Amino acid sequence: MRLLKNHWVSGLLFAAVTLGAIVGEWRGQHQLVYACKPLMMVVLGIWFYLNSRRYGDRFTLLIQVGLFFSLLGDAALMFDHLDQFFFLIGLGAFLIAQICYALGFAQNVADGGNSPGLLIGIFIAAVVLAYGAIFGIGLLQSVDDDVQVPVGIYAITITIMGAGAALRFGRTYLPSFLMVMAGAALFIASDSILATHRFVRVIDHAPFSVMLTYALGQYLIARGCLRHVLDPEEVRRRAALDT
Length: 243
What we know:
Elements: H1 2-5, H2 7-27, H3 30-52, H4 58-77, H5 84-112, H6 118-140, H7 145-166, H8 174-200, H9 206-230, H10 232-242
Helix pairs in contact: 2-3, 2-9, 3-4, 3-9, 4-5, 5-7, 6-7, 7-8, 8-9
């Protein structure tokens, strides 16, 4: 367990299992996907927990729960080629994960108070919301009626998550904002490619690009959130609240 706390060890292990999952998806080797894909969030979740547990609060708990439900979503989506029911289970798990991330980012915004970067955050959030609205409306025109509602709800939720990441601007350590914002954007890109490939048209690179953008997105969100937790100013703020 102590090895998994090390950033380099966990990062290399995460990269290795991600590569295995990508190769498995690309070649249609389901056994390799079954072996590697769940380990992605297991490694990331354990690494985040071991490094953040000393500073555990509502924010760290929300991110940890988000990583856990992402693991459940990954596990369900591994079997969606067998039955669409697994797709709906995975969608539900990721919906909860997105809600947890969004609530965690909202906690950052609330804790950060007034910020001179408010207008910049609002502008970036508006761009995210505009993209979500345009893509979501176009997507729902191609989605089957029986999954239109859950897909629509999920599209709204992940868009809100991205907007929440944007509103952290000026309310957290800059590297934390950049990592989380990039991670949220990659997560949205991954789901956009997946949805387009599944409901609109076949995308040849989807087996590769969906997994790569998803893995990078999750890693950057977790790493950026940990940078926030370990930021010296944030540590001092917690210490002041505990005294």
